Amino acid sequence: MRRLRIGLALAGMAVCVTALAQVAPHGRDAFAILAAQDDPAALADLQVNSAMRNNPALVAGNIEAALTAEDADLAASFVELARDRNIAVSDDLSKRVTDAVTETNSTSHFAKRFATGLVTGNADDVASLSGTVAGDLFVFGDIRDVVREGKHLAMGEDTDRLVLGLAAAGLAVTAATYVSIGGAAPVRAGLTMVKDARKVGRLGEGLTEWAGRSAREVVDAPVLQQAVATGSVLRPSETVSAIRAAFRAEKAGALVRLAKDVGRVGEKAGMRGALDTLRIAEGPKDVARAARLAEAKGGQTRALLKILGRGALLLAAGAFNLSMWVFGALLALFGFLSSIKATTERATESWLRRKKARRLRKQLAAARLPQGPALAGAPAHG
Predict the structure, then answer these.
(1) pLDDT, tens digit, for every residue of 180-232?
(2) Taking 50 as the threshold, does the pLDDT of residue 17 lie above it?
(3) Domain limits at 332?
(4) Total domain count for the chain?
(5) Sign of the CA dihedral running 255, 259, 265, 270
(6) In 3-state terms, what secondary structure has residue 361?
(7) In this structure, what DSSP letter does residue 369 have?
């Protein structure tokens, strides 16, 4: 019976060891992720390391895909990510990325796309986005967008109120940029990037809804309709003054904070990094976390966003699921320790019983032996 009890304890210990070996790595990773959930950089590191362990060819595959899509900036971001994690990238692949970046940044290519963005206000790459930012900085772009959307509003046509609100806010921020000698430039650039992301359909659905609600409060529609009735890009000074009268600065705080965070991402991760952020963000909190990520990771940000998506900014798995892994690991550890305790107690009890039994047998054996001296001194009986 005692052997059976010890055997059951040993079997329980073996089961708990097996379970612990299975769940401990998941529990450890889950605990680390939960601890890093408020630090986007640490959270992204943990998750991308896990992704690379599961797929060693992840970096090389994404570099090839980026080059095929003619996105040299993304390819360069993956090269930087590989360098930071001591992942080897072939010399041939590195050279192809360098050549692609050089071609993208060539003077002729940049000038052509810059002019396109400046004139049309539509951006699909860094050069054209730089053109739209320049156009907005010199108020040309914002006046164009306000006049166009304002006239749609006045005529009862479909109006993109988000673009309208962003352009109106941009005109006010542009004035602040000049007054502060560039101090508000990140906000100015951020407003332009949000506006252009909206135009080309790269603004996430959740962020679009939030920004749309915020933008509606920024513009006084009746005053704006009167302003655009006579507004024109050919009379910028008069038009800007009229539009500013329709701008409610006290309502623009949230929109300006969003633009500031977008500008921070653009400064550290590049304009395309900012556009990638706007595509996956569901609200201003996501953009604020992306700004913190970009400040910590710089050029690696686009690669992290490409691999992890929104998971680079917040927990990819539910906190409940992660907590269950941690709980499972702790439960297996508790079972293992309990099994060790039970095995030790039962083995010790068995040893003590055997020792006590041996001592008792020795005492009984000693009691049965005849006493030598007593026998020698006893009288003989005939």
Answers:
(1) 444 456 777 788 788 878 877 788 888 888 888 887 777 777 776 676 666 55
(2) yes
(3) 1-37+316-362
(4) 2
(5) positive
(6) helix
(7) S
